[in-house]
Description:
4 helices; single chain; four-stranded mixed sheet; CATH 2.40.240.10
Amino acid sequence: MAKNVSLAASARQATGKGAARQARFRGKVPAVIYGHGRETQSLELESQALEKALHGIEPASTIIDLAVDGKTVKTLIREIQRHPIRPDIIHVDFYEIHASEKVKLKVPVHLVGSPDGVRNAGGVLDQVTREVEIEVLPENIPERVELDVTALKIGDSLHVRDLTIANAKLLTEADLTIATVVPPRAEEVAAPSPEAATEVAEPELIRKVREGEEEEGEAAAEGGAGGPAKPEAKAGGAAGTAAPAKGEKTDKAEKPKGGKES
C-alpha cells in the first residue's frame, strides 16, 4: 500500500514570479493546492522538510497529509518542478483527495527477477513502459506494481494485461508492451579504410623497387667483368669522365696556393 507522509505548509499571500523568487531566497518552496471544487490556494513549504519527506518514496503514489494553517487534508502530488541545472525543487502541485472518492493516478512498474533469455542466451531486457494509470480509492493506492519477468525468453514480451493490481482498475491500454527480451547486440566489424589499405600495399611496392635496383646492380657487375660495355655517359653526367685520346695533353693539376712545385 501507499505510504503516508506528513508535511506542514502555510498560506502564501503574494503571488507571481517575483514573490516565488523571494520565497526560494528564504529557503521556501512555492506550492499550490486544488481539487474538489476548491479555489486554487498558494502555499509555501520549508525546502529541507520537503526534500526529507520525498526521499525514498514514489511521490506520485504517496498520500501526503498536508497541514495548512492547522487544518490537515489528504493530498496527492500531481507535479514536482525542479531547477533545470540543480536538483532543487522550485514548485509543487498538491491535489486534495477524499477517502470515499476514487482517484486517477499513475503508479510505477518495477520488474522482478532475471529473465531466462538473459541468463542463458545473452539477451537484453528492455523495459518499454515504466508506469501505468489506475483508478482506485485512496486507501488502496499501491506504492508500485511489480511484474515477474523470470520466464521471459528471447523474443518474449509482457503487456499491461499481464499486470494484477488489487482493488484497482487499469486505465492504460491492455496491449501496451511493458517489457521484452531482445537478442544480444552483434558487434559490428569496421571495414578497413582506404588509408589502411594503402599502408598495407606500401611494403610490396618497396620490395619491387628494391628488386629492380638489385637487377641493375647485377648488370653493372657483369659489365665490369668483361660483359657488354656501359653506354657512353652524356656530357656533364654522373657516369664518369672519358679517358683522354692518345697524344692529347692533359691539364696540369692546380698548384696549392703559397706552396712550391714538387
